Amino acid sequence: MAAALNVLAPTWSRLVQRDRVDGSVYTDPAIFRAELEKIWYRGWVYVGHSSEVPKPNDFVMKAIGPQSVLMTRDKDGQIHLLLNRCPHRGNQVCLEDRGNTTSFVCSYHGWNFRNNGELRGTPFPAGYQGVDKSQLGLGKVARVETYKGFVFGSFAAPGSGPTLLEHLGAAAEAIDRLVQFSPEGEVEVTAGFLKHRTKANWKFIVDNETDGYHPTFVHASIFSTAKSGIGALYNNDSTAVSRYLGNGHSENDLRPEFRRLDKPLGWFGTSEDRLPEYVAKMKVAYGEEKARQILVDGTPHTMIFPNLFIAEIQLFVLQPLAADETVQHVTAIQFKGAPDLNRRMRQQTMGSVGPAGLLLADDTEMYERNQRGVQQRDPETLFLGRGLHRERTDENGFTIGDNTDEVPSRGMWSHYRALMEAT
Ligand code: FES
Ligand SMILES: [Fe+2]
Fold first, then answer.
1. pTM of the prediction?
2. Atom of ligand 1 at shortest distance to CA of 111?
3. Residue 334 has what pLDDT?
4. pLDDT given at position 227
5. Going by CA atoms, what residue is nearest to atom 3 of ligand 1?
6. Which domain holds residue 326?
7. Tell me, what CATH number does 245's domain have?
8. Residue 119 CB less than 6 A away from ligand 1
């Protein structure tokens, strides 16, 4: 495998340039296999949220790319990420989406594993005389770290590579901003997930999450049907900005527009009088002035590379399965201590990304048309130069552009290339 990856290395300077990428990065199965090794099985990947396993012995089935991962909480409260593969002859040890159990029993020959991955016992143990049981536990995602309830995993050996905080860098602030919408400072991932299987490369989706150019066109129908003010945020004269945050992360920072409008909860298409209990709790928690600022600013629109998109009212988790296949897992964000806001978050989520929703269906149609179109031979590249001439640096040193500019995409691709070139 290592040799195959190195054959690719010299070509990256041609495949990924400052303002364009080669179409094969979306279609080539060899590149997809290399991405699994160099991005998905090496760096930090979002897996799940601690609120999905609130009690000791809870578990939930998750994934890192094609790898099926069990997120468990052991009896002492510690979270583990276990690979769903029996060390005996490779059977899946768990078929349930979630539950509560102290052990997983393999259905093939009955090996029994603790929820921290250790092999507890085997049937007819006399047949394993002299065998070291401690070497026959479930595989584990080597590094597990949590930031404000968001659980990330990395297959890199402990002590190697950046820490989670180093990886998140400036994107950690998006999580900070998000959790403060709870009067108790905590997000809860309890609304269940919709899964959209999409015949497109995962990077088309990453590219699109902070692409402020397409909403005016792709989402024209929902903006007019819902009489939404969101469309104006992505107009040519919007004061919102696109920003590259480093390490592949990016955002559309809509706060300049919301501050100009200066309406608490305006970002959510509602007003304080519709959610009096929530607003009162926020004022108690943060004080009048800060609560108002939080509610004016709105929640983040931030893509945390490679797979967590904080989409204002939803979380998207991307799961690549093949060069041309990705599952988008999506859930309504819920805030601890905010039942009245949460109900509206769920309703809006169903309206936008549910089975009959009016938003994600349009994006997904674009992804699949992208995937089909990019297989044509000519032109070979995708052009990502919008706004290159007007890129600028903000007061914190980050590259920003107009909200319709391709600053996030260029940033993501520069990071991607560095990861793919790394040995
Ligand atoms: S494959 Fe799991 S016990 Fe045999
Ligand atoms: Fe979109």
1. 0.96
2. 3
3. 98
4. 80
5. 109
6. 168-421
7. 3.90.380.10
8. no
